[in-house]
Amino acid sequence: MPPSHADLSATTDMNIDWVRRHCLSFPDATESVQWGNDLVFKIGGEMFSVAALEPGAHWLSFKCAPEEFTELVERGGIVPAPYLARAYWVALESAGAMPRPELERRLREAYDLVAARTRKKRKGPAGRTASRRSTTR
């Protein structure tokens, strides 16, 4: 089904600046340019979204929940993200591939998925936070 007029007008202001503002609004999110022309958003050193800085086949990629991957890639304008699909990443071919409210939600979900994994990595055995032991003499 083609997007409604309301959906189209909601995407007209979605550009790299909007993506950047939105992704960096999440706690402790960082950005860096990698691979020459991709703006990568991370939490705890792990990627949750990648935006293309140059026009190409994909506009924006992000991680999704495994149970949502198949549903998303069956939609027009959304494809498995190159090199990252096995980790449940999807790529939007253009800003119009997804309505803005849904994209806002999905980027937050991508951030939350990766943030939860990075918190888990920092935990030691039995769920305790990993830290260096200090010795007293």
Separation, N- and C-terminal Cα atoms: 71 Å
Characterize the biggest β-sheet. Answer: 6 strands, antiparallel
CATH class wording: Alpha Beta
Q: What is the CATH architecture term?
A: Alpha-Beta Complex
Low-confidence stretches: 1-12, 129-137
What does the overall shape look like?
A: globular
| Order of neighbouring strands in the sheet with most strands | 1-2-3-4-6-5
Q: How many DSSP H or I helices?
A: 4
The SSE string, one letter per element, is: HHEEEEHEEH
Radius of gyration: 17 Å
* Mean pLDDT reading: 85
The class by helix and strand makeup works out as: alpha+beta
Count of discrete structural domains: 1
Strands, total number: 6
The CATH topology: Aspartate Aminotransferase, domain 1
Helix content: 25-40%
Written overview of the protein:
The protein has a single domain, classed as Aspartate Aminotransferase, domain 1. 34% of the residues lie in helices and 22% in strands. A hairpin with a 7-residue loop joins strand 3 and strand 4 (60-63). The protein has four helices and six strands, in the order H-H-E-E-E-E-H-E-E-H. The model is unreliable at 1-12 and 129-137 (pLDDT under 50). With 137 residues, it is α+β, with helices and mostly antiparallel strands. It has a six-stranded antiparallel beta sheet with strand order 1-2-3-4-6-5.
